[in-house]
Amino acid sequence: MQFKSDTISRNAAWQKTITLLMLGGMVFAGCQPKAPEHTSVNLQTPGIKYTSYKGTTGQRTPVTLPDSSRVILNSASELQVPENYGQGNRAVILDGDAFFSVTPATDTFTVTSDKLRATVLGTSFKMRSFASQHGATVYLLTGKIRVGKSYHSATDNQPEILERGQMILANNEIDLMEKETYHPEELETWLSDTLHITNANPMVLGRVLEEWFGVEIEMKGDASRAPVITDARFYHATLDEVLRNIGEQQHFKYKISDNKAVITF
Asked: Is the dihedral of CA 211, 213, 216, 217 positive or negative?
């Protein structure tokens, strides 16, 4: 989330700030992410054609793969599927945020991004890894999964095995990958597409929307007088629908472009 210098004060605890930076979801003015060294294009196998699926900004896009595995692409995410998928090879490339429900098979299923590689036989998990951001995450919901770095690390190339309730936090700028725990109910809520916002000032709202929709939020103007959103629920709502409703309550205007929303108070 990006804040202009004349807007909202940043008083979050240092530990929470580090976590958000690891997730790649917060960008401060003057600290834009470096251009990625590896993109989804050069992760492709030479000589193989790929079909590209792209998510629409501010909403989710369902994709069904040839083996009936299901993918939910979040906002402005891209999934690349090779023409030989399912022919002894179930490997896809992700640049973005997506949930995978993998059909069990004898062949492993692999998702590769510029930072991480996840390998399973049949399970469900969520990966967030944008090439434009240094942070990445993997949340396991069911089954087991092996997650490792997709690039060569000078310090540690050992993969981790995750079970339900476990996740990976990674950051390729500082060459970090750690196994942590989370509450699976949070991912199940995300899957139900029921967004519940409680006790949210503009800063909290921005973080929630970034994580939920996989977008960057930039705030301009003076948000200090904006009322706190005490309780709001949205069912299968797009980013535009959420911002239109909240904007009437917190008195701001907004503009959505590409994978970014600019909120002006």
From this structure: negative
Cβ-Cβ contacts under 8 Å for 19 (sequence gap 6 or more): 169
Which tokens go with 150?
């997709």
SS3 143: coil
Instruction: Pull the structure tokens for residue 128.
Output: 């967030």
SS3 220: strand
**DSSP code for 114:** S
| Contact yes or no for 92/85 (Cβ under 8 A) | yes
Q: What is the pTM of this model?
A: 0.85
3-state DSSP assignment of residue 259: coil
The pLDDT mean for the chain works out to 87
- Segment 184-202, tens digit of pLDDT: 999 999 999 999 999 999 9
Mean pLDDT value across residues 32-38: 45
| Bridge-based pairing state of the strands 78-82 and 50-54 | antiparallel
| Those residues with Cβ within 8 angstroms of residue 83's Cβ, 6 or more apart along the chain or in another chain | 48, 49, 50, 51
Give residue-wise pLDDT tens across range 111-164: 999 999 999 988 999 999 999 999 999 999 999 999 999 999 989 999 999 999
**Domain locations along the chain:** 2-32+193-264, 41-183
- Residue range 41-183 forms a domain whose CATH class is mainly beta
Tokens of 162: 């995750």
pLDDT of residue 219: 95
Q: Which fold has domain 2-32+193-264?
A: Phage tail protein beta-alpha-beta fold (3.55.50)
Contacts of 81 (CB under 8 A, 6+ apart): 50, 51, 52, 53, 65, 66, 92
